Amino acid sequence: MTGHGPSSGGPSRPAQAKQVTQGGLGPKPSLRLHLKPAAEEAVRSGHPWVFDQSIQKQNRPGQSGELAILYDRKDRFLGLGLFDPDSPLRVRVLHVGSPVPVQTDWWRQRLHQALQRRQGRFGPDTTGYRCIHGESDGWPGLVLDRYDDVLVLKLYTLAWLPWLATVSSLIQETLHPRSLVLRLSRNIQDLARQRQRLTDGMVLCGEPVQEPVPFLEHGLLFEADVCRGQKTGFFLDQRENRQRVRSLAAGRRMLNLFSFSGGFSLAAAAGGARCATDLDISAHALAAARRHFQLNASHPKVQQCRHQTLQADAFDWLPTAPRGSYDLVVVDPPALARQAADRDSALRAYRQLITASLRLLAPRGILVAASCTAYVRPAEFFALAREVAARSGRAWQELGTTGQPFDHPASFPEAEYLKCIYLQLGGPCPAKPRRKAG
Description:
The protein is of the alpha/beta class. It is 26% helix and 28% strand.
């Protein structure tokens, strides 16, 4: 399966396009797209997306997963990418520069490059991490996560479907998983089922997966529901923040808001927290949190930590909680903005959550506030947290900020979704103002 761009030795006319076969699609003249100037400059500078309104000219209709050859305003080869007629994000850029043959060896080399970036970075005490992180690893719209000997391949665009057999074969050849599970973004599940009978959570190769998959993170045992759970079964991107919370937790009373399956709480318990409370609206998530504590019951510090769960909406529960009742609060809500128009409401929600969480902290208490909302930039999230802390009426210091871990690299602005800030308060909680009599 090949896709060759025209020679870069000078302008090429559309009529001279070669016949190509790619990803199981039939022979056709190369799909040629001429980009508008702004999009051309963005692609040349490394941005991996081309939207439908950025295409100036197209020589013919394209099929999903077809290699689109990109040209600049002077009809010179610019790059190539996967074409997606079902999405306004029309092309996911694979390569920029001189023409290259996109063949099996090319994909194999790209897979090896992603794996080499992570080689030697994880010891035997961590068997859950990301192997491919989409655009930033050169695989736009695709991620590959490892949970011990089970791999999870998640697709965010239908454009990968014609290439799925090749990608699956290369993963098996290189990593030899016990099972390879396919996960599909919600917005493509119906069409994937209709077109190729692919379903979310199906096993592409290897043994059937019927139970959550155990894996290690810094020596703690977790389980990932790889076939039905959120994302690929677990939130691997918070691994290093969980480890930092572990280092700060000794002797503290910990509250984990939007706890999901209790990763932060278990890390705090392993770090010596006196007690840990998981709060989530999902009974299923809280059951998973209790299960994680059971799996690690032999850990001496986990044994000593009193763990409880609360099923509630954090926004409703926070105003009812007593002041100064915790020494460590982690607030890590799900994405609060699904589109750019939701950004302002997301900022208001973060302000509300951080304000209420600070109120719960005892003297010298620590707030860990995280955001996975891509439409809220790191600088504005950190500025908001600092502003709320400054308005709290208490002394405070910033212990640090973090972004994405190295196995979730961000090579362009929209990829910088994860940010976290650590704030420690000083003196006692300010007293409630008394009402004047009469």
